[in-house]
From TrEMBL:
Coiled-coil regions listed in the entry: 27-68
SUPFAM superfamilies: L,D-transpeptidase catalytic domain-like
PROSITE patterns according to UniProt: LD_TPASE, PROKAR_LIPOPROTEIN, SH3B
GO molecular function, one term: transferase activity
Native source species: Ilyobacter polytropus (strain ATCC 51220 / DSM 2926 / LMG 16218 / CuHBu1)
Residues annotated as domain L,D-TPase catalytic: 293-441
Keywords: Cell shape, Cell wall biogenesis/degradation, Coiled coil, Peptidoglycan synthesis, Signal, Transferase
Name the UniProt record assigns to this protein: ErfK/YbiS/YcfS/YnhG family protein
Amino acid sequence: MKKFLLIIFALTAFYGCASLEEGTSKVQLLEYKLSKIQNENTNSEKEIKNYKKRITASKNEISEINQKLSEIKSLAEESETIHVFQEKITPNLKFERKYFGKLPETLNYVFVRSRRINLREGPTTISTIISNANYLDKLPLLEEVTNKQGTKWYKVLDKSGREVYVHSGVVVKRIFRFNTMVDNLNKLDTFINGELEKNRTIAFIRAYVPNPNSVNLKRKKDRYGNVADQSAAAHSERGTLFIPDSTIISIDENEITENNMTKIKVSYATEKSISVHNSFISKSPKINRSPNKAVVIDTTNQNFGVFQRIKGEWTLISYVYSKTGSKSRLGFRTPKGFFMVPNAKKIMTYNSEIGEKQGYAQYAIRFSGGGYIHATPFSYDENKEATRGWKEGTLGTSPGTRKCVRNEEEHAKFLFDWVLRGKISNENYQSVYDNVAVIVM
């Protein structure tokens, strides 16, 4: 492989740079001199023939160089297809659309993370540049390939619909993992129904303490990556665990230990003995079976699917691009796990870094601590219509909230109505009548 690369680079350097440029310049100079002596009409026929012969030889040399470059390019562009992406929902997944607004234009894509990038004819840096793409552009993804050098490239569609290649280092891949979403829904069913069969009670962690000014945030992590902030500190044989607010757990109501501690089970934890103080446990709402509504959020790919159990089968009813939490001075990554929606708000407000009222987001559905699924947020002094398009265009790219999960306003309204079954009161605070799960993966 190294020998092949050296040959490629050497030939490219020799033929592609010095020889081709010098050959072209040589032809131009000879043609200029020939034109000059023909105009002066003072030179012999023999000298004119000599110039013409030299011009022909130089042109042949350029033709040979171009042929060599074409051969080099062809060798370099040989690639192996690693994966072909299908632009359709998995056939074995039931899809019954209930949201009739705008759905994502593409299920599989890459987005540009540099200011401006080149899109090429083949999977190599010596391939012809066909077009360009700009920061945050989403390009439909067709294939993942590796070239002769072992470098990963993506075959994508540019804005004109042409098949082109882009180096994996200047873009980020995003896909909808519907099968993985369903796998997690089945794991939720297995956990809840399995614990109920053992005569255990399904309960929830209640550790939410409103902190609008983000004061004294607790950033200590446990072995699962969960932070202490808005979590219940649980004791286990492997040390302290931080169980995020609204996490679905199971308890045996007969297993209350000393000091008002109760043994619990958490779906993701492998510890044999976990106990938490009773003050963190809520048995409301009462759960007699696994929920029939769920939102499954993919923090890796910045999207989520909305599922409803229809005729006993988990059915996809909507899917959107989203934006999840990232670690920052005022925020955290969106916590992972199984959660139950406790309540919702028509409008969720948020404060600035210095504690002043800064802005709001509509259609907010709380799922863990201060984490909500909500519409695109806006500051009070912002021209909403002027900035909405740009803000919603960043959905499906990089994380960037304080913990919440954003989606487009039109879809956020649909989700809000669906969670509340359309029973929306005149108050800002809304009670949730259905058991609605939120899975963050």
